[in-house]
Write a structure and sequence with these properties.
This protein has 225 residues and is mainly beta. It has one domain. The protein has two helices and twelve strands. The protein has a four-stranded antiparallel sheet with strand order 1-2-3-4, with no helix packed on it. The longest helix has 11 residues.
Length: 225
């Protein structure tokens, strides 16, 4: 798939980008399209703040309940300093509402429900952050297959040689924006520990596509500003 790089003149607010991650209102509800567009735009709109929100590591347990298209997800994590886990409890599925538990490297700080492929079967996206200096964000995601049972969404492996991740040193954030999952991070110059920020920010837009055995997040486009 061809990836397009473009520069855009807007400056973005890191604070407002993550503010949307806490909402339980469906990011792309078909009954609220106009309001959704404005909400999603506001997530990516500028303020003058330069605070790195990823410096705020979760220090207490995480719990969030979300519902879309009649399917509910409860996401919970004790956010332990070691041996942490996240528990996803679905309800409303026709065949199996089996609880899913995953090990977490770091802490859970956010979760969203959405329907990126607009098939009336929602997905849940869970954001975790590694502890330490780089504050890298990891993603855990599940899809409700035709509202019958949960299956894990295949997420592209972290590949430092990928041109999409050239200059990546952590400090990334995820958010659902309309029908895409967007990952954003500051771009650094150099590979050493003392690499400096270039002042640019890169955004990778993912679409949810069917794969041979499971749903997959595929890079749709890359923008830089």
């Amino acid at each position: 798939m061809m990836k397009k790089y473009s520069k855009i003149g807007a400056v973005f607010s890191i604070g407002s980008f993550l503010a949307g991650c806490g909402s339980t209102v469906p990011a792309n509800s078909p009954t609220n399209t106009a309001n959704t567009a404005q909400i999603n735009a506001n997530r990516m709109v500028n303020s003058s703040s330069t605070t790195n929100v990823n410096a705020s590591i979760a220090t207490k347990s995480f719990s969030k309940t979300m519902e879309l298209h009649g399917i509910k997800f409860v996401v919970e994590s004790p956010n332990l300093a070691a041996g942490n886990t996240v528990r996803i409890t679905p309800s409303g599925l026709e065949v199996s509402n089996e609880v899913q538990t995953k090990s977490v490297s770091g802490e859970v700080y956010g979760a969203e429900i959405s329907d990126l492929n607009v098939d009336q079967s929602p997905e849940v996206y869970i954001y975790t952050r590694e502890t330490g200096n780089n504050n890298k964000t990891r993603l855990i995601a599940y899809s409700a297959n035709k509202k019958k049972s949960l299956s894990e969404i295949n997420i592209p492996a972290y590949d430092p040689s990928s041109k999409d991740l050239v200059g990546f040193k952590g400090g990334d954030e995820f958010a659902v924006v309309e029908n895409s999952l967007v990952r954003r991070f500051p771009v650094y110059e150099g590979a050493s520990a003392d690499a400096k920020k270039t002042g640019k920010t890169r955004q990778i837009h993912y679409k949810l596509k069917p794969g041979e055995a499971s749903w997959q997040l595929i890079v749709d486009k890359v923008t830089e500003f």
